[in-house]
Specification:
The protein has no helices and ten strands. By secondary structure, the protein is mostly beta strands. It is globular.
Length: 112
C-alpha cells in the first residue's frame, strides 16, 4: 500500500519561503523519478520539479532558480524548497511518482 503524505504548506507573504515535504511509505522514492506538481486556480495541472533516480533534477521555467527539489533517501522523503515566492505560486501542491501512478493528497500554498 503506497502512501505519499505532503506537509509544509501554508500562507506566506510574497518574497518568503516554504519547504514542502512528502513522506513516502510502501514505495522507495530513490528507485524512480519523483515529482512535484501544482494546481493553480483556473489553470491546468503543471509539473514543477522532477528528481530522477540518479539524482539529476529539472524544473519548470516558472520556478527555475527559486525552487529546489531534493530527497532524503534515509527518511524516504521528498522535499521542495520554495524561495522568493510570488503570488502566482499560489496553488495546491502535490508530490507524485513520475510517471504519476501514485499521488499525495496535496498541500495548499498561498502567497499574498
Amino acid at each position: 500500500h503506497v502512501q505519499l503524505v505532503e506537509s509544509g504548506g501554508g500562507s506566506v507573504q510574497a518574497g518568503g519561503s516554504l519547504r514542502l515535504s512528502c513522506a513516502a511509505s510502501g514505495y522507495t522514492i530513490s528507485s524512480s523519478c519523483m515529482a512535484w506538481f501544482r494546481l493553480r486556480p483556473g489553470k491546468e495541472r503543471e509539473g514543477v520539479a522532477t528528481i530522477h533516480s540518479a539524482g539529476s533534477t529539472s524544473y519548470a521555467d516558472s520556478v527555475k532558480g527559486r525552487f529546489t527539489i531534493s530527497r532524503d533517501n534515509a527518511k524516504n522523503t521528498l522535499y521542495l524548497q520554495m524561495n522568493s515566492l510570488r503570488t502566482e505560486d499560489t496553488a495546491e501542491y502535490y508530490c507524485a511518482t513520475d510517471p504519476p501512478n501514485y499521488w499525495g493528497q496535496g498541500t495548499q500554498v498561498t502567497v499574498s
